[in-house]
Amino acid sequence: MRNRIESSVFRSRASRGLCALVASAGLVATAVPAAAADPLAPAPDSLAQGMADFGSSGLAPRVEHGDIDPFYETEGLEAEAPGGVLRTLQAPYAPVFTGLDFSVPDTAEKIVYSTTDMHGNAIPVSGYVVEPTVPWNGAGERPTVVIGRGTIGQGDQCAPSRNWPLDNQPDPLQSGRKVALEGLYDWVFASAGVRVVVTDYVGMGTPGIHTYMNRAEQAHAMLDAARATRNLVGERGGQFGKVAFYGHSQGGGASASAAESASEYAPDLDVAGSYSSAPPADLNAVQRHIDGSELTGAIGFTINGLVDRYPDLDADLAANLSPDGYAALDELSTMCTDEISENYGGHTTSEWTESGQKLDELLDEIPAGKAAMEEQRLGARVPQAPAMIVSGPHDPTVDYQQAKDLAGQWCG
């Protein structure tokens, strides 16, 4: 365990904000986040032909399910106040575009930090920090953006800090873990002198189940990633500036959750704003939208996380799931997104129940299930800093209307 700083006394501040929020295809034609459309990015064909130029080291084999990395073992780590830094490690950080990466270092700092689960218990979460090598030329101290990745999986091997661009891992075109392309976000922000911190979310990397789309826990993981980074900066004599939240898909939900919860859970943070692309604000609507798509398996991620946090739900599901359903949920708990698309894409959750009902219909009939799903809904709280929602009416995965509804609730 590293020598840990004492938990800092957080300074409360009055949160002020303006809802500058957009939820229409007028901003983007699809739900692809703006960073992914950077004009410097080569065309897909040239990416496929020039992996070395794209930044793949290819020196290390792809991390697989069951691979053990002592950095993520948390037994014996002492609990800290939210945002306390429990462990750090310098890790190789691959260039994104050879010759253009003057703004990012050749190492990133992996972190294990303290957050709280939905019941208020202290738990460890991992992630990584990228400190730009170019100055911040805007007002105030260098700002920090906390990034939540899109749906990457439920197995520990899927964690952002265990994949490209860290640890000499093969790039997403070689590994097949295409969601890791969101590592491009790091480069975009670092090029502007913005510090980047990426969370692995609760239970991905560190022991325990990843509580996929748990509203409170994804908010806490994002907010405490900012606090942990502030602690690191302060420990090293630096000054910490404003914070923003950014994410697409699952990350859009995490960004929106953090924006909603910041004034209550982390009033000590100076939040500049948030960007939430295709946020799953209403899991019922999202499940109906993706059931039968290439992301059917993500519904299993949700169920696995709910059962872990709502034990009363287990018995109700036991009476209704088929043997195939149990096998699917067990297998999905160890998979990354590329694997669920290959193994469960095009299937429906009606194959997992004894009655042939889809899981959204079944959960709606189970009081504990209905209540658990409702607790994950976004929109009951309003961000106190500027917020932007981006969604597209033709998004094949995250339902557009529920994102638009969230915009209405925030600005209503």
TrEMBL record:
Cross-referenced Gene3D superfamilies: 1.10.260.130, alpha/beta hydrolase
PANTHER family listed in its UniProt record: LIPASE 5, PTHR34853
Signal peptide: 1-36
GO MF term (any one): triacylglycerol lipase activity
Keywords: Signal
InterPro entries: AB_hydrolase_fold, Lipase_secreted
Name under which the protein is recorded: Lipase family protein
A Pfam cross-reference name: LIP
Organism phylogeny: Bacteria, Bacillati, Actinomycetota, Actinomycetes, Mycobacteriales
BP GO terms, sorted: lipid catabolic process
